[in-house]
Amino acid sequence: MFNTLSGRFLVLTILFVMLAEVLIFVPSVARFREDYLLARLERAQIASLVLLADDMIAPELEQELLENAEVYNVVLRRNEMRQLMLSSPLPAPIAATYDLREVPPAKLIGDAMMQLRNGEDEIIRVIGNPTRAAGLLIEVTMDAAPLRAAMLDYGLRILWLSALISAVTAGLLFFAVRRMMVLPIRYVVTHMKEYAAAPEDVRHIINPRTKVRELRDAELALQSLQTQLTGALRQKDRLAQLGGAVAKVSHDLRNILTTAQLFADTMERSKDPRVQRAAPKLVNSISRAVNLCEATLAFGKAEEPPPKLARHPLYDLVEEVFDNERIAATDCAITYVNEVPPAQIIRCDSEQLLRILGNLVRNARQAIASTGAPGTVTVHADENEAAWTITVADTGPGLPPKAREALFQAFQGSFTKGGTGLGLVIAAELARGHGGTLTLESSDDSGTVFLLTLPRGESGLAA
């Protein structure tokens, strides 16, 4: 119970109410003591007035008056004269004197606490002002034991009343907190557990019902989160199914296109002028379709294998990429510039780095070719103590704004007609596998620059 929110509220409420009652108890007991002593002074004054009316009273009557007032002696000061009005033998010497005339509250509280702690029977003197201006001063001597007993009885009644108030208040607060906070929180937790068990089931999305503003805001936020997550999971399932279907179609289509490419190669050897003119275009179209299928299959894999790092000359890798592009596009007036230092060695997976640079250079070539004007593709490399940096720049028209917004998103970041945008997505994923990054450095009318950064250490490598 004490580990629950309502249980802790119950315990804290009892403690706080008891603390408040203790703070009230001390001045209450001091006030009770003051009233008790003032009452004894008033009784003594009444008894002394009887003597003033008839100064020849019997000793028995005088003793009865003192017993009714619960005092031993009464001294009344009137007209600057101090008179012993009533007297009886004292059983013990006077132990303390208390003056109730204009006494500060702190003094009253201190005297009351001292009275409670002192358990010995003793005689005390009490001084006060007579009621109704019946004199200048009244003084009595009395036994302190009845006073202490009355104070203890009053204190116990206060404590029992405090305990009852604490129990009632704590119980009310317990049920209030349970109804207003604990039950709504349990409702939210129950829905979270049910939703976690079957997030695709919309019946488990929470329906806000509490009227407490803060808890209702939490329920609304949870409802929005669950709704968005359910939609995202459904979309993910549909995309996964679609991806599986596309991968199967691409695999079969690639085999078909490979066969068609063999027939196209045979057609190129034909002596028919019309076939010779059409064959290169057919070969290029089939090659693009094969590349698209291969890119789709590569992207559809669950994950890329981790890079197998080794030391490779970067200049040779760049030249290999350039050679492939020169063979793929012989009709474009494009100049390939390799500014990599011939002696520079880079630690990487050569196959994956060829794919990264191949995608970047191919995109640069296609961007220049779309203008119909000559252009240049330049690869530059540099290194420092932390990383290798490779830039791929072209003199093409630059990326359109729409392509920049979704540059590394599959099927959205393409800047060529009919493209899929998978090349940059795959290149960025391979760069992350090396622990590096692929970013767009700049893109405007003068061309586009991509920056590839690969760390020299192994701490950033993906597992």
Automatic annotation (TrEMBL):
PROSITE patterns reported in the protein's UniProt record: HIS_KIN
Recorded coiled-coil stretches: 215-242
Catalysed reactions listed for this entry: ATP + protein L-histidine = ADP + protein N-phospho-L-histidine
Domain Histidine kinase stretches: 248-458
A molecular-function term among this protein's GO annotations: kinase activity
Bilayer-spanning residue ranges: 9-30, 158-177
Matching SUPFAM superfamilies: ATPase domain of HSP90 chaperone/DNA topoisomerase II/histidine kinase (SSF55874), Homodimeric domain of signal transducing histidine kinase (SSF47384)
Subcellular localization(s) per the UniProt record: Membrane
SMART domains reported for this sequence: HATPase_c, HisKA
Keyword field: Coiled coil, Kinase, Membrane, Phosphoprotein, Transferase, Transmembrane, Transmembrane helix
InterPro entries xref list: HATPase_C_sf (IPR036890), HATPase_dom (IPR003594), His_kinase_dom (IPR005467), HisK_dim/P_dom (IPR003661), HisK_dim/P_sf (IPR036097), Sig_transdc_His_kin-like_C (IPR004358), TCS_sensor_his_kinase (IPR050428)
EC number(s) on file: 2.7.13.3
The protein's name: histidine kinase
Organism, scientific name: Meridianimarinicoccus marinus
